[in-house]
Amino acid sequence: MLCWFFPAGGRRVELITLFKELGKVIVGDVAPIAPTLYFADEPILLPPMKDDRCLSFLIDTCKRKRVSAVIPLIDPEIVFLAKNKDVFSAESVMPIVSGLDSAEIGSDKLATYEFFRKIGIPTPRTALLEEHPSFIASTAFPLILKPRFGSAGQGIYVCADENELSFWADKLRGLDYILQEMLGGDEITIDGFSTGDGVLVQAVQRKRLKVRSGEVERAVTVKKPLLFEYMEHIAANLRPFGPFNVQVFSAGDRFGFTEINLRFGGGYPLAHRAGARFPELVRDLFLGRTIKTRVGNYQEGLYMLRYDSAVYTTCLVEDF
User: Fold this and answer.
1) Is the pLDDT of residue 235 over 80?
2) pTM of the model
3) Which stretches of 133-277 are assigned E, i.e. beta strand?
């Protein structure tokens, strides 16, 4: 039986249940109150990802549980797993993660901007926060401040004018922040899948309608032909392995690409219900099967309207 290992399940319950249709699911987390632990076939508490014990613990778990593939769901895992990809492969475990060069581009918003510029993808002007005096001389407000290595929409500030920018520049002095031109229009996430050879296998566009705590809560699938072309160009140059998603702002026929996440996006279940089958593609990657390209083959106009649910328990997962 195939066995899928998610080292940081968090609250991604719906995605976990999709993989349970394809084999055994092991979910790890550093906290015993992570909801996904209670939907796994086998829950495991893990040491922190930065802990020196983590790699040996993960490898040992994969060997004992006969894990087929390790699948990251949060940004801090990406570079960690990419750096140790060969260690897992030596144990016949496939990390569903891109190469280190690609992982470092996706984890660094300044590097992402430079990558987009280099390959001719439209992207908003971006610079390090300390370069703000020269930046604002040629860029109109409002501007947006983001952690250079941030995730989940945390630590983001909008500056309406120079006074607000000066306030935040002083408050965030010494921290790794970027300053970015703020774009208007629709915010679209494009879920993509590639096999590491530069070929885009599938891409599904979903327009965000409401976001909560950095993750999409309500969205609808859309199709803009030019965005598929941009995604193919990104995949050809970035060569991602497995699922990835790209954030883009769309205003009429103008686009601005802002982020790359080399993992399953939080709103992926909408793409799945619309016709994408990324868990099956992950399975086929592991089994070495030929994967056919079906970019844009999904249902348009499908809405996702998320709501809260809960786990009730008197017994938490025990400490490792």
Assistant:
1) yes
2) 0.95
3) 143-147, 157-159, 177-181, 186-195, 200-212, 215-222, 241-251, 254-261
